């Protein structure tokens, strides 16, 4: 089974609960005032990192997520309960992108820690009729419908967090090397493409440790997707140092080195400018040992061609020989890796966590005529109208007052409305009188 490192999520945040229309009626208060409570807020959706996860498999077949809605308000000024938030856990190193328009998308966050990221905000609860009491309206019969929760489509892309990336053509010995110097247990066999997904291992050197990642074998054209190369190279983007493992028995190890660097450059030019170490494997083979000096010279010369000229980097690309099978040269390689890592410390990336809930953009209040119907755009008024009993004259009068308060009644008059004309507020239509 291949590693699941990208998924699409459809998330619907919780709706706000409805406000309540209620009046105090008791033996000693036969004509008590309004006491309808507000609806509860809908639950938010969050995404946070979980260090115990290393794949998005748990979301692949659970890609539609509905968050709990708020509870409706009740009489006696009882506010409805808020909907429970939904926390979606992902591996560290996951990038969050939000779909925008038909084919566009927008970057949301890079999950590098365990702090939650708000990705979909629940709707606010509707106001109960007790909220609409005023000096001119002692008996309000209006209450709001709760806001709809945000609905978003997200794309999650996992880019594993590692300090060192092992790059090589298939069957060069990467799996044997990482299994020798860490507790990782990748499949090792004599045929190509034994490793079909990235493998992480923790390596200890000089009483310190670093994370090494084996990137599955790369072929020419990997940056265009050949042999799943794009998926594999994406994971290598975060590495600070690349170790090129070259098969010393290959027909042309120098050409293999050029091919690997070219794939890095074609995928992302910045990757080819990162510090590199060349490790020639299979020094235990006689022909490789005999050609060691000549091959080291050719590789050193080849490495100079890839050294960035204007990037400000002053690193040299060392050429080292090793045998992943016998262990010869492996301690020296790891020691050199640690030296390079010490010279290029991790960049501190602060998580972009919102300090306060996002505020959604509301449509402005306005009026226009459409096919002879006067359309009123006002989100708060639409929530009132959605729960209004338009057969009740009191309700119509109070809706009219709410339109006056928002300045919409004046806009209707200016637009030429007359008695008997139809007003559309959301999905509700009423007659002007």
Question: Could you please describe the fold and organization of this structure?
Answer:
The structure is a single chain. By secondary structure, this protein is an alpha/beta fold. It has 3 domains: 6-158, Distorted Sandwich (Spo0b-associated Gtp-binding Protein, Chain: A); 164-343, P-loop containing nucleotide triphosphate hydrolases (Rossmann fold); 366-431, GMP Synthetase, Chain A, domain 3. Helices cover 22% and strands 23% of the residues. It has 10 helices and 18 strands. The strands form 4 sheets. It has a 6-stranded mixed beta sheet, with helices on both faces. Strands 3-1-8-5-6 form a 5-stranded mixed beta sheet, with no helix packed on it.
Main attributes?
Rossmann fold; Spo0b-associated Gtp-binding Protein, Chain: A; 10 helices; alpha/beta; 433 residues; 22% helix; five-stranded mixed β-sheet; single chain
- Low-confidence runs of at least 5 consecutive residues: 225-229, 353-357
CATH topology of the largest domain: Rossmann fold
Work out the helix count.
10
Helix and strand run = EEHEEEEEEEHEEHEHEHHEHEEHHHEE
Number of strands: 18
- Profile the largest sheet: 6 strands, mixed
Instruction: Give the termini separation.
Output: 68 Å
Radius of gyration: 32 Å
CATH architecture name of the largest domain: 3-Layer(aba) Sandwich
CATH class of the largest domain: Alpha Beta
CATH superfamily of the largest domain: P-loop containing nucleotide triphosphate hydrolases
Strand order, biggest sheet?
Answer: 10-11-9-12-13-14
SS class: alpha/beta
Number of domains: 3
Overall 3D shape? elongated
Mean pLDDT: 84
Q: How much of the residues is beta strand, in percent?
A: 15-25%
Fraction in helix: 10-25%
